[in-house]
Amino acid sequence: MKRIAVLVSTYNGENYIADQLNSILNQNIDTGLYDLQITVRDDGSTDHTVSIIEKLKETNMNISLIPFTKNLGFAKSFMSLLSKVEADYYFFSDQDDIWEQNKVNDFLSIISAEEVKTPICGVFSDAWIADKHANSIGVRLLGQRKENIKNGYLTFMQQIFETYVAGASLCINWNARQQVLEFNFDDFLSRKAHDHFIALIISCYGKLYFLDKPTLRYRQTGNNVYGARNIKKKSILQRLTSLHSRVKDVQRTLYIGGNIMKQVPEKEKLAETMITISNGQASFYERLKFFKNHQRLVSAKYPVTLSLLYTMMTSKNAN
């Protein structure tokens, strides 16, 4: 029997946590083939979140709760969960969304087939943006970004310039988990989101498949750490700042795994390029050529402007 671990990090989520856990428990899966277990780590809630979880535990053996020790923040909380739980497949869950009933089945149909040829793999999907009552507003989370995803998977190169993966819609296999845990999350430069960190590593050393279907309702409560965003409203400065952060993250991903990177020699040239660019060691021409060649990935709205600005931003004097 294959083990499915659903990892949930909570913090003052008393208004929504019961709905979310029940939507996970009510998934349409073959219980003869799969054992689904929910592991919750509370990050120091001061409301009734923990007591609600404890109440659900009394009637459902599929829920376990890790005792609180200290506040880690949501990203490190998820990474702590990932390191502690043993399973064949790992799903990440926010505390306030609602999963569609066939979400787990839809993910498993892809990952169980693809991991035979790609041992390190994961799957992510789209999501419906929902109001505070978890009613879909009919808008997809990925929006126009979805059009950039070709051939059913997300490339490593794409993630240098844009974020696509929300942890709430991500599943990885055990091999991917082992690869992720080779890295020290504390050394990752953004030190913010676990989902981008995990997605980068999987697409570097394996494959990250895309399920073009909303599999959950991404509830907007007003208290989301990262809510749904309108990419069209981002200024050039905001886009430039985000780009700089992602390039540094990519550099760090490749650099930390220097010895592991030998397993994927096709990434070595990219690694060298990203490291020299991020360290300000590449010439102006080398930087200009790199960003010009990928300017449509840099920005669909400001491809030339952002490519030129970032070329200048990564000069030796700018660092």
Order of helices and strands: EHEHEHEEHEEEHEHHEHHHHH
Secondary structure: number of strands: 10
Largest sheet data: 10 strands, mixed
- Radius of gyration in whole Å, from Cα? 20 Å
Chain oligomer state: single chain
The separation of the N and C termini measures 52 Å
Mean of pLDDT: 83
Shape: globular
Question: Summed up, what is this model?
Answer:
This protein is α/β, with parallel strands linked by helices.
Based on the model shown, name its key terms.
single chain; ten-stranded mixed β-sheet; 319 residues; 39% helix
Task: Report on the architecture of this protein.
The structure is a single chain. With 319 residues, the chain is of the alpha/beta class. 39% of the residues lie in helices and 20% in strands. It contains 12 helices and 10 strands. It has helices spanning 17-25, 49-59, 74-84, 103-114, 158-161, 174-180, 194-205, 236-256, 268-278, 284-293, 295-298, 303-313; strands at 2-10, 34-42, 63-66, 89-93, 98-99, 121-130, 136-140, 153-154, 170-173, 207-219. Strands 1, 2, 3, 4, 5, 6, 7, 8, 9 and 10 form a 10-stranded mixed beta sheet that branches. Helix 7 crosses helix 8 (236-256), helix 8 packs across helix 9 and helix 10 (284-293) packs antiparallel against helix 12. 42% of the residues are buried.
